[in-house]
Amino acid sequence: MTIEKKLEINKHYAKRIGFVNKRPDLTLEQFVAHWTGVHAVLCQRIPRLRRYAINVIDRAANPHMPFDGFSELWFDSVEDHDAAFASPQGVELLADAKNFTEKLTGVLVREERFIWPDHHEFEG
Question: Is pTM beyond 0.85 here?
Fold first, then answer.
């Protein structure tokens, strides 16, 4: 494993998790279509974003979950996060939330990555 790869694995990220509840007037299909087809495209435009993931809750398997899904947005630092959401693209992104969510609860966390070593590292 290269030193660059080891540094990337051990890097700390500021991550915003957004817990979302769909608008009651939308079907699950409409909710997901807007989230993946409109909102995700807007999200890709915000500056300093490193990674974006959408997680839709399987309501049949998890009927008692208090939300319908959550997003994960990775930034190199809290300062990058704050600058991204203060940018015109970040403001536009947050304004779009009302078009498909009834409630969006965001939380900023520090992600610490722990990855199991590749088994080949222990050979030879």
Answer: no
